[in-house]
Amino acid sequence: MFGHGLFACGGGRFRHYGCNTLPTGAILTVLILTFGPISGAHFNPAVSAAMALRGELAARSTAIYICAQVIGGVLGVWAAHIMFELPLWQVSATARAGSGQWLAEGIATFGLVLTILGCGARTPSAVPYAVGLYITSAYWFTASTSFANPAVTVARSLSNTFTGIAPVGVAPFIAAQLIGMLAAVTIARWLWRS
Predict the structure, then answer these.
(1) Best exposed site among 38, 49, 114, 148 by fewest CB in 10 Å?
(2) CATH of domain 20-191
(3) Cα 134 to chain center, whole Å?
């Protein structure tokens, strides 16, 4: 899973987040460049829902993508557990709750969706790089470390590492992400009119 971060470099917050930011943003860029021509690089239910709301993705395709995204996230977490020789079955105990965390997730998802829609409106070839850079930086400027993806949120609830989220925090995070997505879709319609 992106940003699993089971390796160490440095100390303190940098140990956890500094080592995760660059590989997460880099692999996300690579994945978008690789799979964009096949599926439109739909790895995120919030992004798929945004495209459906804009009439750019059919409801049936959206539902299929969202199911695949959640399943892919869970399989990714399990693969990371196997690679790092951790127990396959885990439930996160990392508490991520409170208005600051929820606001951070709303802002993280708002920024991500707005980045995709803004670059897509004027410079579509820049989207993979802009997304990778945005997620890399959002790790640092959000209190939640920018999950910005409901499938990642579900998957990270199944990993009891520092990147996890306790199951009780999943629904509020996803709600905040969807609110952020709706705000981005609304503002994008105003900023980038056809």
Answers:
(1) 38
(2) 1.20.1080.10
(3) 11
Two structure tokens written together for 162:
């520092």
- Check: CB of residue 45 under 8 Å from CB of residue 150: yes
Phi, psi of 147 (to 5 degrees): -65, -55
Distance separating alpha carbons of residues 123 and 11, to the nearest angstrom: 39
pLDDT digits (tens, 9 = 90+) for 88-112: 999 999 999 999 999 999 999 999 9
For the chain, the structural domain boundaries read: 20-191
The end-to-end CA distance of the chain, in Å, is: 36
CB 170 within 8 A of CB 153: yes
Report the 10 Å Cβ neighbour count for 173: 29
Asked if 50 and 76 count as a contact pair (C-beta separation under 8 A), the reply is no
45-69 pLDDT, tens digit each:
999 999 999 999 999 999 999 999 9
Percent of the chain with pLDDT over 90: 81
